[in-house]
Backbone:
């Protein structure tokens, strides 16, 4: 069984500590919904797992199938089976999307893919997410709409067929139609037994891509873990209950000793206005 | 063709010409493009060139489109001088240069637009790897009588390494009011986010850098008309990285 395990991970950007001891384990065949207030380190965790050089790991470990991957660059991590669908996919002017995709495919093969095989694969993947085929001739993400960029991410995920999908706010900026294509692709990933770590603010996506459980980052730590009943609770109530019920401060940089709470099913207060 | 006292090879362009030349040692060349004629010249600098001087003299209504691909090694002093002393001539210069390990390259292009209704566009693109050095100096001079002249200059260099040295200096000296002028210059580090994005999909660092380099130099590479030559240049650049 494949596992991705993060152990006491401390990460800083430009000398400022953002992650302050993250512990989290994901197995294949499970989908973990990563929640947390804005700016508390969700994207930072995913970027660090993928190996962005700006995110400096001060201490801790990231283990893929028990092997520490911190010494590997992003390219090696990709080949080991990690994929990050980015919250804000990068625009790369002058690099045609198709050329890039072919290099990405060839990076994990001994013999380069034939042109006909490549176009067949591309054809299928573009259809799957309803991405206009002729856009593969344009520069990578340059001038793409928000929705086109996100579809391009999911399309690459389908083509590269990773073991673990890290999915960062894939549904923000998408219209309902696009969300459905993306959700369907992710559901298929679930059915294939992938391990998925996913960030989304919308319960809508989670109606189709049902999480196995949730984890909540507060101020750079996983402050709370629970089963998938918390998807609805967070959707209805937001995060205040962490403070009122569990005494977890939602402020960044608070001096209070960190709390980690791990629970099963929750009780939902539907009347949040009170 | 004839050789001058200073070993300059003088070439008169009496017809429309499409030409490719490869330079692999020090050379001085002078092209005189006659009235109404057009010179399409692609120049490849390879091996070790050390010094390359090229002059253009454009007669009335003459045109010259120059593409220069520099993958030479070691030291390079390149100077190009363009004289536009008759009306309605136009000149375009598009250069791609890579400076690698211990290379030290100085590229000076100067264009004198002496009379009116002349057009000159200069594009210099460079990539500097490891401890390579590359400097661009572009001088565009518009003389007082050059009414209706157009001039533009673009210089862009990306560095892949802390040890790289590069500079881009565009100088426009304009002594005439009736002119359309544009210039831009930038020297910067490789886009770390772009590099990460490509690598995060499995591309090796060197392959990612090759794609970004080709993208950066593409305005010059795309101007190579001969498809076979273009493929050869692309392959050569990939191998440099
Ligand atoms: N590339 C970056 N440069 C500087 N600061 C950053 C960068 N990325 C994230 N941060 C900072 O790190 C903190 C966590 O950000 P992020 O992980 O994006 O939060 P989330 O995804 O939970 O909204 C924020 O304070 C943010 O400003
Ligand atoms: Mg985020």
Residues:
């Amino acid at each position: 069984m494949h596992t991705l395990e993060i152990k006491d991970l401390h990460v800083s950007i430009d000398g400022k500590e953002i992650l302050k001891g993250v512990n989290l384990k994901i197995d294949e065949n499970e989908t973990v919904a990563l929640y947390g207030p804005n700016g508390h380190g969700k994207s930072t965790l995913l970027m660090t797992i993928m190996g962005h050089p700006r995110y400096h790991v001060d201490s801790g470990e990231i283990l893929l199938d028990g092997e520490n991957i911190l010494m590997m660059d992003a390219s090696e991590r990709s080949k080991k089976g990690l994929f990050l669908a980015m919250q804000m996919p990068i625009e790369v002017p002058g690099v045609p999307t198709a050329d890039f995709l072919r290099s990405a495919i060839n990076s994990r093969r001994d013999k380069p893919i034939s042109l006909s095989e490549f176009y067949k694969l591309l054809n299928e993947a573009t259809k799957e997410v309803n991405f206009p085929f002729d856009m593969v001739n344009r520069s990578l993400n340059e001038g793409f709409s928000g929705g086109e960029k996100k579809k391009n991410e999911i399309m690459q995920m389908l083509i590269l067929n990773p073991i673990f999908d890290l999915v960062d706010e894939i549904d923000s900026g998408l219209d309902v139609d696009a969300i459905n294509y993306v959700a369907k692709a992710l559901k298929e990933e679930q059915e294939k037994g992938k391990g998925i770590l996913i960030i989304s603010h919308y319960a809508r996506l989670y109606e189709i891509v049902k999480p196995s459980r949730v984890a909540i980052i507060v101020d750079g730590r996983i402050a709370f873990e629970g089963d998938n009943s918390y998807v609805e609770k967070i959707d209805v109530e937001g995060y205040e209950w962490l403070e009122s019920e569990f005494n977890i401060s939602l402020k960044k940089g608070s001096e209070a000793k960190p709390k980690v709470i791990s629970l099963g099913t929750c009780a939902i207060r539907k009347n949040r206005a009170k | 063709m004839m050789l001058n006292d200073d070993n300059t090879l003088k070439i008169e362009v009496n017809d429309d010409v499409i030409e490719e030349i490869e330079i692999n040692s020090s050379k001085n060349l002078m092209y005189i493009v006659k009235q109404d004629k057009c010179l399409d010249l692609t120049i490849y600098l390879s091996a070790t060139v050390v010094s390359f001087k090229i002059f253009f003299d454009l007669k009335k209504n003459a045109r010259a489109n120059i593409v220069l691909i520099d993958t030479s090694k070691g030291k390079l002093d390149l100077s190009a001088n363009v004289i536009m002393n008759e009306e309605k001539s136009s000149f375009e210069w598009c250069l791609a240069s890579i400076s690698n390990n211990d290379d030290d390259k100085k590229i000076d292009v100067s264009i004198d637009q002496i009379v009116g209704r002349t057009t000159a566009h200069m594009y210099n693109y460079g990539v500097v790897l490891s401890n390579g050095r590359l400097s661009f100096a572009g001088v565009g001079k518009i003389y007082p009588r050059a009414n209706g002249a157009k001039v533009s200059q673009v210089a862009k260099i990306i560095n892949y390494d802390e040890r790289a040295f590069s500079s881009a200096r565009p100088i426009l000296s304009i002594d005439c009011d009736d002119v359309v002028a544009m210039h831009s210059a930038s020297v910067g580090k490789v886009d770390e986010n772009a590099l990460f994005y490509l690598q995060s999909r499995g591309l090796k660092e060197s392959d990612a850098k090759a794609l970004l380099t080709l993208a950066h130099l593409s305005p010059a590479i795309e101007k190579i008309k001969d498809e076979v030559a273009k493929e050869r240049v692309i392959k050569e650049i990939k191998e440099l990285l």
Notes: Chain A has one domain: 3-90+166-273. Residues A 42-43, 87, 169 surround magnesium ion (ligand 2) (CB under 6 Å). Chain A is about 35% helix and 30% strand.
